[in-house]
Amino acid sequence: xxxxxxxxxxxTNTNAQSDESWKAKAFLNIWVKRADGSRAKIGAIALxxxxxxxxxxxxxxxxxxxxxxxxxxxxxxFQMADKPASAVNIGF
Length: 92
Fold this sequence. Notes:
The protein has 2 helices and 2 strands. The chain has helices spanning 52-61, 66-73, and strands at 26-33, 39-47. It starts with 25 loop residues before the first strand and ends in a 19-residue tail after the last helix.
């Protein structure tokens, strides 16, 4: 009877190389201030230095005025999915 091995673990594969391209170099977190003064995290964007734009953005954000400059340059867009949001006092 024939035996087949599929998906050999990388530890046993001597030709396997470490691929960390999926890892983020930095994160851009998105917060909304609540009515009580606290804040709610509504998202995060993974930035990877393998992508040219992300790499440039990471470098710019590390500068003293980087986050402020990005905030001024942002444009937001809102699109509804299938379900409407429930009524919650979000503070603005």
